[in-house]
């Protein structure tokens, strides 16, 4: 199959970027989207041009590094799919594909399709952890957690921090990411000790990173590759108000 690509090229955060056209022919429809970009970069290197920078690591839908906007959609047209799991069979022969980096003030472009998502790391560092000494891993039946609670915590913990929620939100909100990290810990016994300080610190850091407010459109859940529920945001709001109410003066 053949594809016409319009790719955002930008030297660094201080330079102006632009869309550049590329044509690829005789592509295998079973190639992944990132393998297609690898093919393009091999072509550019052979021709003496600079390859396209893009983030990737595991290429198994786990690490969350491969995020980019594909024809206006975070990670592309398939629901609950990361960019690395997207294949060319999802596109039509001869189709024009627009490829851009995630757009958000808190995600400055480093180069081409590569953005700086360290704002997420700083939110985690502000409170997304358990500081108590839990010792060695206990037996699975030693901690009194119901199956339902364990499943809910696991569903929230499935967030891979790719940033699709931020990129697709019209306000560039990180509410879904932050709430998922807060929820999966507050549901478990180990995380309840710091539940108040955690939510206050993480929300404060989220605001300091210049993420926007939740837009209530639920677009973040729709384009999240893990299908993280917006119910996490409701729980974060509850935990935040609870922490304010019981905060020590």
From TrEMBL:
Record-stated family: Belongs to the succinate dehydrogenase/fumarate reductase iron-sulfur protein family.
Pfam families linked: Fer2_3 (PF13085), Fer4_8 (PF13183)
Domain spans labelled 4Fe-4S ferredoxin-type: 150-180
GO BP: aerobic respiration; respiratory electron transport chain
GO molecular function, one term: 2 iron, 2 sulfur cluster binding
UniProt cross-references to InterPro entries, sorted A to Z: 2Fe-2S_ferredoxin-like_sf, 2Fe2S_fd_BS, 4Fe4S_Fe-S-bd, Beta-grasp_dom_sf, Helical_ferredxn, SDH/FRD_Iron-Sulfur, Succ_DH/fum_Rdtase_N
Cofactor: [3Fe-4S] cluster; [2Fe-2S] cluster
Protein name from the UniProt record: Succinate dehydrogenase / fumarate reductase iron-sulfur subunit
């Amino acid at each position: 199959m053949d594809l016409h690509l319009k790719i955002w090229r930008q030297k660094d955060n201080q330079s102006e970027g632009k869309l550049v056209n590329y044509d690829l022919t005789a592509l295998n429809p079973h190639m992944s989207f990132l393998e297609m970009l690898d093919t393009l970069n091999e072509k550019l290197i052979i021709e003496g041009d600079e390859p396209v920078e893009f983030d990737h690591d595991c290429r198994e839908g786990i690490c969350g590094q491969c995020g980019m906007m594909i024809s206006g959609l975070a990670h592309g047209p398939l629901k609950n799919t990361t960019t690395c799991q997207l294949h060319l069979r999802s596109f039509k022969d001869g189709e024009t594909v627009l490829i851009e980096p995630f757009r958000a003030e808190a995600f400055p472009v480093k180069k081409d399709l590569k953005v700086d998502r360290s704002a997420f790391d700083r939110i985690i560092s502000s409170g997304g952890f358990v500081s108590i000494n839990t010792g060695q891993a206990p037996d699975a039946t030693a901690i009194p957690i119901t199956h339902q609670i364990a499943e809910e915590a696991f569903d929230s913990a499935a967030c891979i921090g790719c940033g699709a929620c931020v990129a697709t939100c019209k306000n560039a909100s990180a509410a879904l990411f932050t709430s998922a990290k807060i929820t999966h810990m507050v549901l478990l016994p180990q995380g309840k000790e710091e539940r108040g300080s955690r939510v206050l610190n993480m929300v404060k850091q989220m605001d300091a990173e210049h993420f926007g407010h939740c837009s209530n459109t639920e677009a973040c859940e729709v384009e999240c590759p893990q299908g993280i529920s917006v119910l996490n945001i409701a729980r974060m709001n509850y935990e935040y108000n609870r922490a304010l109410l019981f905060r020590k003066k």
